[in-house]
C-alpha cells in the first residue's frame, strides 16, 4: 500500500512503469517514405507553375517599366526640347532610381535619344536570363516615340516587331 500523501504506483500492460506513448520511438521508414513521396509530387506540380507565374509577372513589370520610360522621355522633351538617356532620366528624377540603373524585375533596360534628339528615342527591355528553367522572361520589348510597346520572342525587339495588345 502507498503511504498517505504519496502517489500510487501504476503498472502498465508490459510491466513497465512508463506510459506507452513515451516508449514509442517515432515514425516507421514506410511512413517517412510515403510523406517524402507526397512532398515530391506536390513540388513537381507547384514549382513549374511558380516559375511560370514569376516570368509572367516579370514581363508585366517590364512593360510597365517601358511605359514609364516612354512617358518620362515625352515629359522631358516637352520641357527641355529633346530626348535623353535612361541614366539622365534617373538623374533628373523623372523615373525611379531602380529603373534608371537599367535592371529591374529580371529585365535589363536601356533608352537613348535617336539621331535626331528632338524627335526620336528608343527604349528596350530584355530578360536578364531568356532561356531555361530559371528564365526571368521570354519576350523582348521595345518602345519609341510612337508609344507603342512591341515585342519579340526570338531576340531583341525593334520598331518592326509585333505590337503588344492588352
Percent helix: 25-40%
Count the domains: 1
- The H-and-E topology, N to C, reads as HHHHEEEEEE
Shape: elongated
Q: Which structural category fits the helices and strands?
A: alpha+beta
> Total strand count, please?
6
> How many helices?
4
Main sheet summary:
6 strands, antiparallel
Strand neighbour order, sheet with most strands: 1-2-3-4-5-6
Mind telling me the C-alpha Rg? 31 Å
What is the residue-mean pLDDT, rounded to a whole number?
Answer: 88
Distance separating the two termini: 86 Å
Strand content: 15-25%
Kindly describe this structure.
The chain is an alpha+beta fold and 166 residues long. It has one domain. The chain has helices at residues 20-23, 29-80, 86-91, 97-100; strands spanning 103-104, 107-113, 121-127, 140-144, 150-152, 162-163. A hairpin with a 7-residue loop joins strand 2 and strand 3.
Provide key terms for this protein:
166 residues, 6-stranded antiparallel sheet, 4 helices, 16% strand
Secondary-structure topology with pairs:
Blueprint: H1 20-23, H2 29-80, H3 86-91, H4 97-100, E1 103-104, E2 107-113, E3 121-127, E4 140-144, E5 150-152, E6 162-163
Antiparallel strand pairs: 1-2, 2-3, 3-4, 4-5, 5-6
Amino acid at each position: 500500500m502507498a503511504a498517505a500523501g504519496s502517489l500510487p504506483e501504476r503498472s502498465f500492460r508490459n510491466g513497465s512503469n512508463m506510459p506507452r506513448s513515451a516508449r514509442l520511438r517515432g515514425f516507421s521508414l514506410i511512413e517517412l517514405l510515403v510523406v517524402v513521396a507526397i512532398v515530391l509530387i506536390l513540388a513537381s506540380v507547384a514549382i513549374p507553375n511558380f516559375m511560370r507565374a514569376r516570368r509572367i509577372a516579370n514581363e508585366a513589370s517590364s512593360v510597365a517599366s517601358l511605359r514609364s520610360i516612354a512617358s518620362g522621355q515625352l515629359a522631358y522633351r516637352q520641357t527641355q526640347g529633346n530626348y535623353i538617356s535612361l541614366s539622365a532620366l534617373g538623374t533628373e528624377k523623372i523615373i525611379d532610381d531602380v529603373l534608371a540603373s537599367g535592371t529591374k524585375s529580371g529585365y535589363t533596360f536601356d533608352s537613348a535619344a535617336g539621331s535626331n534628339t528632338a524627335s526620336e528615342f528608343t527604349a528596350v527591355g530584355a530578360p536578364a536570363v531568356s532561356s531555361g528553367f530559371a528564365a526571368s522572361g521570354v519576350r523582348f520589348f521595345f518602345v519609341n516615340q510612337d508609344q507603342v510597346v512591341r515585342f519579340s520572342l526570338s531576340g531583341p525587339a525593334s520598331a518592326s516587331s509585333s505590337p503588344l495588345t492588352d
